[in-house]
Specification:
Elements: E1 2-12, E2 15-23, E3 30-31, H1 36-40, E4 60-63, E5 68-71, E6 74-75, H2 76-82, H3 85-94, H4 100-111, H5 120-125, H6 133-147, H7 157-182, H8 196-205, H9 216-228, H10 236-245, H11 251-262, H12 270-281, H13 287-295, H14 316-331, H15 338-351, H16 354-358, H17 366-376, H18 383-403
Antiparallel strand pairs: 1-2, 2-3, 4-5, 5-6
The structure holds acetyl coenzyme *A.
């Protein structure tokens, strides 16, 4: 972070305060308000953090106007095309693309941590069968701190590293077991001769009674979905992880907090909500009715999979996802899938409508991911758990960056209090 020689001037009641301006390597300048309360006695007001940088980071950069997403400087479309998920994990976690030897070592470390402590099976069994897999994941990931005591001391760099590898490695096992439990099938143990995506597909779809062959096309599509969701700078769940860990809480508890936040329909739950919406629309002739509802101020309905807090142009991940949807559905022989037809027509009609273009509402990554996941055989309830598996690396990389920063402070926002002023307690008989 470099301080430029410019300063912003803020005038309050005739007094002027100078606020330093920092220049990032790329992106808009940032006004430093850290000393504002101390010098001027005022807070800033920014609900939803629409104009506030909560940290400095070197991991991910988004240019929402251009529709650009970079991980450590590398564009997401190049990573989705040329790289694969575990290599992107290495890049996010350590800052550079690995050499062949570094990648082999990293993959072997992740692979050797895929099993869960056997006692954890009883944890799954404690849930109702109809529990949402996200509910199970929040509980089981939080419970990891009760099983892996030797990686909860955040002041120990080695323990931080072990916790990171454990979370990346075990999250697919946890998500797959949550699914197996919900459909009443026995859990499938990980196989370390398979790559990350193939292993996840096998743990979700294999049964002990039959051999299971992983389809390489589906495995590639799964890996791409993981890659496209790996990190997205200071989004709601990542900020939740950072805020939770700022108190010094252990990494498993913090990632469980991130999973809880991701569950909401405005965030990770959007792909489930989007597919349900496309199914409800059902046929292209009903699209105008739903577009009219989305535009109606008195109707809370929104086009799910449309709009983004940061992207005011096409979400670059949506472009890759759309291409993947076409490929997967064609290879599975379901290119005439009615949901895909509705999605394509809805996208066309919305993008030709001034309401959406004026508000810069474009399809986001979730618009097409649900269609691919459904074609692969996943129920909608597994969409957000799959997002959680992918985003774990982003949460961990951001957590690790924050913990390693000597300037780390507990996160403690201020407020604009609008409540009652001081008043005396009134005894119950006098109310
Ligand atoms: N359909 C219809 N109108 C919309 C939509 C939508 N999907 N999204 C935003 N708008 C409208 C709002 O009504 C608002 O209109 P107004 O200015 O007339 O009041 C305007 O666009 C701005 O909307 P905000 O909610 O203020 O924008 P914000 O940046 O806070 O919200 C969000 C972004 C939450 C993603 C929103 O676009 C939305 O709810 N989209 C649908 C859910 C979704 O797809 N979420 C996935 C996000 S991506 C991810 O998490 C991976």
């Amino acid at each position: 972070m470099s301080e430029s020689n410019r300063a912003a001037k803020l005038e309050i009641d005739g007094k002027t305060y100078e606020l330093p301006i920092f220049s990032p390597t790329v992106g808009p300048d940032v006004v430093d308000i850290r000393k504002l309360y101390g010098t001027a006695g005022v807070f800033t007001y920014d609900p939803g953090f629409t104009s506030t940088a909560s940290c400095d980071s070197t991991i991910t950069f988004i240019d929402g106007d251009k529709g650009e997403l970079l991980h450590r400087g590398y564009p997401i479309d190049q990573l989705a095309e040329k790289s694969h998920f575990l290599e992107v994990c290495y890049l996010l976690l350590y800052g550079e693309l690995p050499s062949p030897a570094e990648l082999e070592d990293f993959e072997s470390r992740v692979t050797n941590h895929t099993m869960l402590h056997e006692q954890m099976v009883y944890f799954f069994r404690g849930f109702r069968r109809d529990a949402h897999p996200m509910a199970i994941m929040v509980g089981v990931v939080g419970a990891m701190s009760a099983f892996y005591h030797d990686s909860t001391d955040i002041s120990d760099e080695w323990q931080r590293e072990v916790a990171s590898i454990r979370l990346i490695a075990k999250m697919p096992t946890i998500a797959a077991w949550a699914y197996k439990y919900s459909i009443g099938q026995p859990v499938v143990y990980p196989r370390n001769d398979l790559d990350y995506a193939s292993n996840f597909l096998r743990m979700c779809f294999a049964v002990p009674a039959e051999d299971y062959e992983v389809n390489p096309i589906l495995s590639r599509a799964m890996d791409r979905i993981f890659t496209l969701h790996a990190d997205h700078e200071q989004n709601a769940s990542t900020s939740t992880v950072r805020l939770a860990s700022s108190s010094g809480a252990n990494p498993f508890a913090c990632i469980a907090a991130g999973i809880a936040c991701l569950w909401g329909p405005a965030h990770g739950g959007a792909n489930q909500a989007c597919l349900e919406m496309l199914r409800e629309i059902g046929t292209p002739d009903r699209i105008p009715e739903f577009i009219a509802r989305a535009k109606d101020k008195d109707d809370p309905f929104r086009l799910m999979g449309f709009g983004h807090r940061v992207y005011k142009n096409f979400d670059p991940r949506a472009k890759v996802m759309k291409q993947s949807a076409d490929e997967v559905l064609e290879l599975l022989g379901v290119e005439n899938n009615p949901t895909l037809q509705v999605a394509k027509e809805l996208e066309k009609q919305a993008l030709a409508d001034d309401y959406f273009t004026d508000k810069k509402l474009f399809p986001n990554v979730d618009f097409y991911s649900g269609i691919i996941l459904e074609a692969m055989g996943f129920p909608t309830s597994m969409f957000t758990p799959i997002f959680a598996v992918s985003r774990t690396i982003g949460w961990i990389s951001q957590w690790k960056e924050m913990i390693s920063d000597p300037q780390m402070k507990i996160g403690r926002p201020r407020q604009l209090y609008q409540g009652e002023t001081l008043r005396d307690y009134v005894d119950i008989e006098n109310r």
